[in-house]
Design a protein that fits this description.
Strand order of the largest sheet: 1-2
Number of helices: 4
Structural class: alpha+beta
Strand content: 5-15%
Number of strands: 2
CATH topology: Pyruvate Kinase, Chain: A, domain 1
Oligomer: single chain
Order of helices and strands: HHEEHH
CATH architecture: 3-Layer(aba) Sandwich
Radius of gyration: 32 Å
CATH class: Alpha Beta
Distance between the termini: 99 Å
Helix content: 55-70%
Shape: rod-shaped
Length: 166
């Protein structure tokens, strides 16, 4: 029996984003990953740059993308011998606790970025609509005034023509 997600993600922009939603998505993704339903999780989202600009970005979420070069390994080996820190519990236990939280936080960041981009796009669209409506009102007012002036001018010409004929 498949687990049902309790939130509707189609309208996150109107309902807002909460960490609970990100946590629920994260738990589902991690469950599917550990059930070997996929090997890699890459998320694609709109990164918020400004109100009128968003950048489509992709980020590998699972497995955590850490580049291990020979230099990093050498630096780590040197640091182990001179390290003054003792981890309690051990590093592996700490990572088992922190990595799932990292996935949740990364998802929350992505949801916030996408939500900010959506709200920015809405603001820009409403600003354009308001500007266009103002221009349309100005154009219609000008047409109305010219038409009214033409009617008044025609009526004056008719009155003057009628007075001259008498």
């Amino acid at each position: 029996m498949k687990e049902k997600i309790t939130h509707s993600f189609a309208d996150l922009g109107s309902t807002g984003v909460s960490y609970d939603i990100a946590l629920e998505i994260s738990n589902k993704i991690q469950e599917m990953y550990f059930d070997h339903q996929f090997d890699k999780c890459i998320i694609v989202y709109n990164k918020f740059i400004s109100i009128i600009s968003q950048d489509v970005t992709h980020q590998q979420l699972i497995p955590l993308n850490i580049k291990n070069s020979e230099e990093n390994i050498e630096v780590n080996n040197q640091n182990k011998s001179t390290s003054i820190y003792t981890y309690e519990p051990d590093e592996e236990t700490i990572l088992k606790d922190l990595l799932p939280k990292n996935v949740s936080i990364q998802l929350f960041k992505v949801l916030l970025e996408s939500n900010a981009g959506e709200q920015g796009a809405r603001m820009a669209a409403m600003d354009n609509a308001t500007r266009n409506a103002g221009e349309m009102i100005d154009n219609l007012t000008l047409i109305y005034n010219r038409t009214r002036q033409a009617v008044i001018t025609r009526e004056l010409i008719e009155i003057i023509s009628g007075a001259e004929s008498v």
